[in-house]
Structures are given as C-alpha cells and as structure tokens.
Design brief:
This protein is of the alpha/beta class. It is built from five helices and seven strands.
C-alpha cells in the first residue's frame, strides 16, 4: 500500500526538483518516476494506478465508554495515548474521542450502540516489559498489571479499563 496521496507525491516531486543543484535538471514527470521507483514500481503511471485499486486502511476498534473525562484520564494520562480528535454533535450530547499511540488507534464512544462494554482489543506491542515499568511508575494508574509470559501469541499484559473493556498488550513471538 502506498502511504502517499497523489497530491502528496506531487508535492514531494516538486520538493525533489527544488532541492537539486542548479546545474541538474529534472522534469516534474521524471521526479514522479523517481518516487515511483523508490516505492518499488516501474513509473508514475504504475504508482498512480495503485491509488485507484480498492483497499483498506487500518481498522479502528470502537470501545464503549460511559464517561469521556474518565476515559481520557485512563487512556491519555495513564496509558500514554494521544487524542487525535473529538466529535460531539452539540454540547450535552455523547462524545466520541479518537486516541492513538504509535500505530494503535482506538475510538472511545459515549454513544449508546457504539461498541459493547466488555470488548477485547489485542494490541501488538514492542518492549512490553519497559512499557509495563512505565505504567507501574505512573501516579495516574491504579492497576498493577502482570505479564503472562506463556500467553498464546507471546507475552501479554492485560489491562481492564474503567468500563470493563479489556486491552491485551502482546509482544508477539518471532
């Protein structure tokens, strides 16, 4: 999957051309071909064709939370996620908050019908022991999670959020 949009690729091609020494010349089309070859494709036409193929992005599990402020304390202050966006139709209505940490993204929703309390999310994790040490040292957390070294898939630390959702942070084997 190509991480750039067609417009991103064109902006990079312009930047490539502007960064060349004055005695070097490269047409816009040639710069686009260079970007395509860097992506492992033959030319710009092959790269442009990839933008029109059906494809999927990363899914975002939606977890039901009953209190966005409490969810923010748990996910942001303790687990170290960042808030990507918040949506509320109008004041006083349920809030939907998008949070992420590295490649893991979650939706936290106060909306009835979004998610089911007690859901489980499996999150692949690097340096699980180090992450656990950070959580244990944080004054924001009240849990003292252990690591199951014999869990299927690799060492796993299970944390339950204040709404009954289970987060399984796993350091995959191999």
């Amino acid at each position: 999957m190509i991480p750039l949009s067609p417009n991103d690729a064109k902006v990079l091609a312009r930047a490539l051309r502007s960064g060349l020494e004055p005695h070097l010349t490269l047409s816009h089309g040639q710069a686009l071909d260079v970007l395509a070859r860097m992506a492992g494709l033959a030319d710009w036409n092959a790269l442009a064709a990839t933008y029109h193929k059906p494809g999927f992005g990363s899914p975002m599990p939606i977890l039901r939370v009953q209190d966005a402020a409490l969810a923010r304390q748990f996910y942001v202050d303790w687990l170290g996620f960042s808030i990507d966006f918040e949506h509320q139709f109008e004041p006083g209505l349920p809030l939907f908050v998008g949070v992420s940490r590295d490649d893991a993204a979650l939706g936290l929703s106060e909306h009835y019908g979004d998610g089911t309390p007690g859901s489980v999310v499996w999150i692949p994790t690097r340096a699980l022991t180090s992450y656990r040490d950070v959580l244990m040292a944080s004054p924001a957390g009240s849990q003292r999670p252990g690591i199951d070294r014999d869990a299927p898939g690799g060492p796993t630390m299970t944390i339950i959020d204040p709404f009954g959702n289970e987060l399984r942070f796993c350091e995959p084997n191999g």
